[in-house]
Amino acid sequence: MQMFAKTSLVVLVWVATVSQLVAQDVSFREDVAPILVKQCLTCHGEHKFKGEYQLHNFETLMQPGETGEAAIVPGKPDDSYLLQLLTDSDVGSRMPKDADALAVADIDVVRRWIAAGAKFDGTDKKEAIVSAVIWKHPEAPASYPRPFPVTALAFSPDGKELAVGGHHEITIWNAEDGVLVRRIAGIAERTYALAYNNGGSLLAAASGTPGQLGEVKLLNPVDGKLVRHLASMTDCALGVAFSSDGKRLAACGADHNVRVFDVATGEQELQLDQHSDWVMDVAFSHDGAKLATASRDSTA
Question: Residues 33, 38, 44, 46: is their CA dihedral positive or negative?
Fold first, then answer.
């Protein structure tokens, strides 16, 4: 009896330890949300949602769609309709619709997260899921085996350096001799716009992965460190511009929106949704009183 009690205690401790590891191992923001944004958000977003199911934020993710079945049942992955759809053997029923099945590793991440209680590790369940994500971008290539399209560049205010967009990186070059000075990592797939503030102490970058993600970041061009992540969006960020006094930054993108940020605090002051297509570029008037926008909808 005593031996049985000791064995039971060991088993209980082991089960508790495994449960804790599972819960700690999977983060919604770092592991689950990136999968949902890349694979599901296009068809189940805030404005376009098939099957009456939305997952543009955590609150809607947990609610049922038109079938009424619980999308996610914390602690019970096999009872969660979302997971059933991701693993359905019938190609016609499986999600994502008309696309390749999710990788086994991605499905395992979702399953383990649900099994551990489907916990939310963000601050606001109504926050856009793309903004809640902690993105882990791939490393830039050690070297480029073939020419890569350059879609953004900017001279530093003193003209001594040139910032250039690369693949998951921004490179800084000496403008006099063309020597590579530094490489800034942790950037989305491609950078579409770069802008220095007047003092050259900040470099704003508009980057993204087409159809999946857009990011606006403030970087220190001297050491390459991230100063502030200003925004994430559902499609590429395409343009950035500092006001002449450097206090505000305007950003635009393929999500049809224009955003204005307080550079010192990173707070978003304004969001404009007056365009019906990509907003390609933005520019402040010299006194900062006006903001011009250029869009693929053929209007400015």
Answer: positive
Q: Within 10 Å of residue 44's Cβ, how many Cβ atoms? A: 23
Residue type at position 170: I
Q: Tell me which DSSP letter residue 31 carries.
A: I
DSSP-assigned letters across all residues of 174-239: ETTT--EEEEE-S--SEEEEEEE-TTSS-EEEEEEETTTEEEEEEE-TTT--EEEEEEEESS-EEE
Q: How far apart are CA 45 and CA 48, in angstroms?
A: 5
In angstroms, what CA-CA distances link 72 with 114, 122, 211?
Answer: 7, 18, 26
Q: Supply 56's token pair.
A: 């543009």
pTM: 0.75
Sign, CA dihedral 188-121-114-88, equals: negative
Enter the tokens of residue 7. 């064995």
One DSSP character per residue, 223-288 reads: T--EEEEEEEESS-EEEEEE-TTSSEEEEEETTS-EEEEETTT--EEEEE---SS-EEEEEE-TTS
Flag whether pLDDT at 276 surpasses 90: yes
Longest dimension (CA), the chain: 85
| Averaged pLDDT of the chain | 88
End-to-end CA distance of the chain: 82
CB atoms within 10 A of CB 205: 27
> What is the C-alpha to C-alpha distance for residues 17 and 10, in angstroms, rounded to an integer?
10
Distance in angstroms (rounded) separating the CA atoms of residues 230 and 249? 10
Q: What single DSSP character describes residue 78? A: G
> What pLDDT digit, counting tens, does each position of 102-134 carry?
899 999 999 999 999 999 988 888 888 877 777
